[in-house]
Amino acid sequence: MARWRPGTRERLQEAALELFATRGFEQTTATEIAEAAGVTERTFYRHFSDKREVLFDGQEVLLEAFLGGVRRCPADASPVDLVAGALQGVASFFSDERRPWSRARQAVIDANPALQERELSKLATIGGLLTAALRDRGIPDPAATLAAGTAVMVFGATFGRWLDPAESRPFDQIAHALLDELGALVTRPAPLTRP
Amino acid sequence: MARWRPGTRERLQEAALELFATRGFEQTTATEIAEAAGVTERTFYRHFSDKREVLFDGQEVLLEAFLGGVRRCPADASPVDLVAGALQGVASFFSDERRPWSRARQAVIDANPALQERELSKLATIGGLLTAALRDRGIPDPAATLAAGTAVMVFGATFGRWLDPAESRPFDQIAHALLDELGALVTRPAPLTRP
DNA sequence: TCCTCCGATGTCAGTGACTGACGTCGACTG
DNA sequence: CAGTCGACGTCAGTCACTGACATCGGAGGA
């Protein structure tokens, strides 16, 4: 017989999402989350470095998806191909079954600036690591920085669309459409070739 | 004779930057900043909503520079032109005289994750408002979102380079070079359609 | 001139996020 | 069976931030 019920971390995460969704982030204390999970506040902070972090676990997996997508590209892939590959890699993460959960979580985040800050921070971290990965593949700066930034930006736009109830396409289709659109946008329609 | 010395806000900002630079952000309490500026902690929080915010004042002006750059574009400007215009508008902000100050401030930010979060948050806010401005100019979604995101991303990359001691070009030149590079990057060199 | 209202600040008490130190006790290991 | 360890509890403490109320020079009006 174990001294404590296992799965503390998961119970804390569930309790937190539930409480944040009903009462709001600010109106929920760390102590309340801990009690709802059957532990003490101190234990909460042993699992999560701060109150916001309880909503942002598993970003390493998201990062791995990005990097895996890059790794799966052929050695001579161009930067755009790598961006597309990264987006493709991450698409497996956002299957249709996850949409309800993602929406619930995102609603909580959208309702609180502090949580939005943390979300941006996580994305920026991924962007930084992606930049490093691209450099490792021989992409020089500033191309690596720009490509990684593009991947993260398109990911953000894709994610937002994917959550939209009016949007029915799967994640990877949205991502590719947006990447194509960006390509069309950013290519200056030179006046000479466009009479 | 005034009851209090004027310029409290500015004194607080200077004291904060100074203390953050020497002791570090976490090791500096709001009370210490206030005392260094000759006021109480409560007054600090009357001027700045939180401890980080003291470093991020004047973002409205940066936003205005972005929007001003957009406004100065001709009515039929393409999205890339608008992005370029926004970057051009913001370039006036980063004259060479500001580089030492910007570097000092950035060193403080780079040394602390919480400050980096706030910086990202400010940039995201600007991105959102820029998106709205582009929509107002008739750019539909998702082009508006992507273009604004591009502007902010290229701005970030430009700012980083501009701060680099090895970089001697002025802000706007770096920005345009990076935007061009992005255009080259993101345009898939499709052999079939590009004979 | 005097009064009155206002705005920037001080004072104080309180809440809640987070941390360090230490104790507890089942489980595992030799 | 003794010792170690990992996951948790307990407690006290610091600091970010907030609300309520007091203070008093100064600007404007009677």
TrEMBL record, chains A, B:
Residues 6-66 form the HTH tetR-type domain. Residues 29-48 bind DNA. GO terms for molecular function: DNA-binding transcription factor activity; transcription cis-regulatory region binding. InterPro entries: DNA-bd_HTH_TetR-type_CS, Homeodomain-like_sf, HTH-type_TetR-like_transc_reg, HTH_TetR, MftR_C. Signal peptide: none annotated. It comes from the Bacteria. The keyword Lyase does not apply. Keywords: DNA-binding, Transcription, Transcription regulation. The keyword Hydrolase does not apply. This is Transcriptional regulator, TetR family. It comes from Pseudonocardia oroxyli.
